[in-house]
Amino acid sequence: MSSTQDESVVDDDVTPSQSQLVPESTVAISTIDVIGEPNNQKWTSTLILSIIIVVLSTSFVMGVNIGGPNLYNGFMVPWARGYPFPCQKEIGTAQWIARKWWNCVYNDTTVNSNGYYYLPEIPKDNLIGQRLQDSLHNILFVIGGFIGAYSGQFWYKCLSRRNAIFANMPFQIVASIFMIITLYIYNGYETNDPDKATLDKARKLKDVAISFFYISRFFFGFAAGMCCVVSTSYLNEISPRALRGTVGSCHQLAIVIGILLGQIIGLPWILGRHNTWNWGMAWVGLLPLIGSVLIWTLPESPRWLVQEQRQNEAAQSLRKLRQSNDIEAELVEIQNEETALTRKDLGIIKVLSSSEFRWPLITSLVLNAIQQLSGIDAVFFYSADMFSLAGLRDEKVLWGILATGIINLIATLIALKLIELLGRRPLIIWPLAAIIVIMIGLTIFIVLNAKNPEEKKEALAIVSIVFILIFIVLFAIGLGPIPYVYSNEVFPVEARAAGLSLAMFINWFCKFLIATFFLPLQSAIEGYVFLLFCLFVALAFTLLFFKMPETKNKRLQEIQTFWK
């Protein structure tokens, strides 16, 4: 077949009379042996469009919900405590914004005659408990995430891959609506010293508003956890084997772009202000709303169709994705990997108890655990606090946060090339080793800087920020994308739903641990908190060095040979 014919777009309505069409008898039989590698292992417009619609409707939204709150914490935390007025802000960047945008005064105690102009200080004996309460919205996001991730196996089994992605979108749309409502029913815009009656009036619907706020964060988290299973499965199953790593990494790339755009939107010159943060958190709901319409233009997963014994539809879907009629070799490869009459989807208990899946499961769980326990979410959830701890002040914290998003995006774009060039294993093992060194150095600089007087903090603060940015680069080229790709590659079809759900559950459970305990631990042990991350990374490095196989461009049987 000529290259011109290979690249031609084939519509869903192709008839059997066309000379290049795969014969009906060929696509209906799952045990045909075809010599040679599949053709058409390349990018097509249909493949690219499918990736863009899926990741913008799901993965990107997850990224915005990780990166955005970091900028809005200075407004959301006092608001949730019951202090909704513009000048009631904690020391740091939030006070700088209040001075610039609301003309608040923080060096004149006479403006606080009623006692409500400033945000009340937290008693030292209640500091850890209050910090835990302040992080509740992130905790609920993560609780929703690991419930959504655990539920992924059921969406995976009960719906088609495309329909499961569609089912993800209503949660995000409802979450956006609830987020918009919050600041309209409970707010305060009094810039003078409010009295108790004014404060009580503003708080009238506080509990209702905060309930909407927390439900919104939970729904956003549920959708994010669910998308880590259903979206990554779809991307893995529509991609050619030669592009599987790159296509799978598009999920992480979209998250990273979402984090950066969430950070940009959260700047005070855009929506990061006292009276607009709810829109900064909610605007992203437009994307799943659009995606819920566009999703029906995408082809169904050919692998799922083969599993369902719908061979003709699988061939039709594959033709559309590869934009060619020459799909016979790839179709037979899919049939050989995905179909067998004796195969049935295995439950979580069976996968956990079977020695056959021991090392695929352990390495997947460790990879997903260390993705979070490396400390990356401490950076993206709480980098404003981290940079303040390191010694940055006022608007410099904003630029530090923005730098994390930019560096993360650049490194992830590089990773898209490296993941197929170097493979999965080197991009995990050696960056983990380097992260150990970075965490030790970061601890030393932050602890030393804490002893410096205020006027001497900035120099060491800049060194600490450089270490954090290096950590982000090391994370983004390996730990960022590879856990999602690897977990889809190492399980046979009958264990894939349970294995992937377990991996994503552990991922989100560890994210929960970071969201819950980072601020209290930071308050208790300050810079030494990074030594905990160092310990987790060292343990993961040791296990993965000996037990993680290379999966790049390999069939499942070749991967399984590593553990035998």
Put the structure in a nutshell.
With 564 residues, the chain is mostly helical.
Describe the model.
- With 564 residues, the protein is mostly helical.
- It folds into two domains: 42-83 and 129-298, Growth Hormone, Chain: A, CATH 1.20.1250; 347-563, MFS general substrate transporter like domains (Growth Hormone, Chain: A).
- 71% of the residues lie in helices and 0% in strands.
- The protein is built from 26 helices and no strands.
- Helix 4 packs across helix 19, helix 18 packs antiparallel against helix 23 and helix 21 runs antiparallel to helix 25.
- It is globular, with a radius of gyration of 25 Å.
- The two termini are 41 Å apart.
List the defining traits of the structure above.
single chain, 564 residues, mainly alpha, Growth Hormone, Chain: A, 2 domains, 26 helices, disordered N terminus, Major facilitator superfamily (MFS) profile domain-containing protein
Count of individual helical segments = 26
What is the average of the pLDDT values?
Answer: 84
How many β-strands, per DSSP? Answer: 0
Q: Mind summarizing the main beta sheet?
A: none
The CATH architecture classification of the largest domain is: Up-down Bundle
Q: Give the helix/strand class.
A: mainly alpha
Family: Belongs to the major facilitator superfamily. Sugar transporter (TC 2.A.1.1) family.
GO molecular function: hexose transmembrane transporter activity
Keywords: Membrane, Transmembrane, Transmembrane helix, Transport
InterPro entries: GLUT, MFS_dom, MFS_sugar_transport-like, MFS_trans_sf, Sugar/inositol_transpt, Sugar_transporter_CS
